Amino acid sequence: MTHPLKTKLVSMLEVVYPSLDCDYLAGQLLETMGLPPDQPLPPAHQNNWDESDVVLITYADTVQKEGEKPLVTLHQFLEDCLADTVSSVHILPFFPFSSDDGFAVMDYLAVNESHGDWEDIEAIGKDFKLMADLVINHMSSRSRWFENFKKRVDPGKDYFFEGNPKDDLSAVVRPRTSPLLNAVQTEDGERHVWCTFSEDQVDLNFANPQVLIEFAGIIRKYLEHGVIIFRLDAVAFLWKEPGTPSIHLQQTHELIKILRLLIEHHSPEAVIITETNVPNRENLTYFGNANEAHVIYNFSLPPLLINTLITGDCRHLKTWLMSMPPAQMGTTYLNFIASHDGIGMRPTDGLLSEEEKQRLINTMDSFGGKVSYRRTADGRDQPYEVNIALYDALKGTAESGADHWQLQRFICAHTVMLALEGIPAFYIHSLLATENDLERVEHTGRLRSINRSQWQLDALEEELENPLSHHSKVFHELNRLIAIRRKQPAFHPNATQFTLHLGLQVFGFWRQSMRRDQSVFCIHNISDEVQQIALSDINLIGTDHWLDLISGMKIDDLSGSITLKPYQSVWLTNRE
């Protein structure tokens, strides 16, 4: 008797492990996941999201209260302030770790005791869709697996990827300037382990199928603890081969398909998101044929939108938007402008000229930002990301520097993001309009710390209750805009989107609901000058009644025009 699930899994495994008994390996994976081989296939092209979905990105300990576990404090803050605002919460790595603020995991199956425990994680997962990191490319050099690697015993003996210093590794794509190979003393003598990101983050060896089986077990545990959205961290680097770029290799894409197959058969409502901070065309490949990632990060959006708002020129943002393919049903984009990392510069390759990139970097530098670098194949160091708090990134323009439009410019950026095709994701420090934390950078010695502040709950509550505080103004306005967005069928992540042509200083696009009963024309003045827009240029249907969802303004004369103040946005709709 043939079983569709097992047959499909075997065919995928044969691409990655052609010399192994893939029928046996498939059986091991299904058993580890608790899946019978005759498990029915889940519905194809199922959208596990709608217009009400909004993601919050936060560390477990971003909000703290003395004498209380941070996960408990976070849950209380979510319940008190964001229960009607966000649907999903991405808690950045909450496991025991040795460096990189959680991304050098020591134990995948434990919660960092200083944050709380699995019960605290599960409690949040009962009230919100819970998103967690599967830090799948590398593991801490202080983990038990790596200690076993050095002792040459299992589990761990062959779990980490080894390289040879004599190999030609010049083609390998690097996101850092640190050495790729690091020498390690083991019971068998010196070995060289592959470290894409840092000496403390040792790359795992998926050429050993036992590593894949281990991760199947980890995924099952996460699902049992309430995780429903999996962020595959740094997944583009998963498979390595000396003599190649060791990024985006076929085996990597096939492994993502395997993980998706296992996850969605266990929990059909589960979602995989790939984190691939690379040029736009490369990033899009992670949709596969709607059989890899359900969702991909829109990595080009942050630098392009910031560039648009500091230059008052939307040509590059508009060109990019027109070139983006509509996501197939069952897939969509994750739109964000800020995250725990910096503003990636690689996603601007082919979109901004070198001169424009440098102007962006120089402007961010003048607003207090820092620049991280990566090492290219020819040994040069190139800007990899700009580290800066988003509120400070938008404090002025490239031409004039800091000005008095910071708050309006910041709100405009998020109004654009909220309306675009895809699911919007807010880094907690954007919702709170947190500024550059230069003191934290000095304390940790890490540039990314500039945007990883921690709030004491009482101080945060005081700021949010103060109507004169910019934190309060931003928080309440973004909450208001999110509440509007969540009620509009035209803002479904898969609803139709077309780019409008309204000049260089006005960025606009049209969204239409999947039932075609609602249109929203999203129009944004991305400059510091007043803009006049003729309604005839927007082509509003004359038999419909139109109003602005943001201000409540009704449009009575379609032959007239609308006036937009600097950085003002309107969402014109034919359905209240």
UniProtKB/TrEMBL annotation:
Listed InterPro entries: GGa_phosphorylase (IPR033746), GH (IPR017853), GH13_cat_dom (IPR006047), Glyco_hydro_b (IPR013780), O16G_dom_2 (IPR045857), Sucrose_GGa_phosphorylase-rel (IPR016377)
Short name of one Pfam family: Alpha-amylase
Superkingdom of this protein's organism: Bacteria
Biological process per Gene Ontology, one example term: carbohydrate metabolic process
Name the record gives this protein: Alpha-amylase
CDD domains xrefs: AmyAc_Sucrose_phosphorylase-like_1
Family annotation (SMART domains): Aamy
Record's keyword terms, sorted: Glycosyltransferase, Transferase
GO function term, MF aspect, one: glycosyltransferase activity
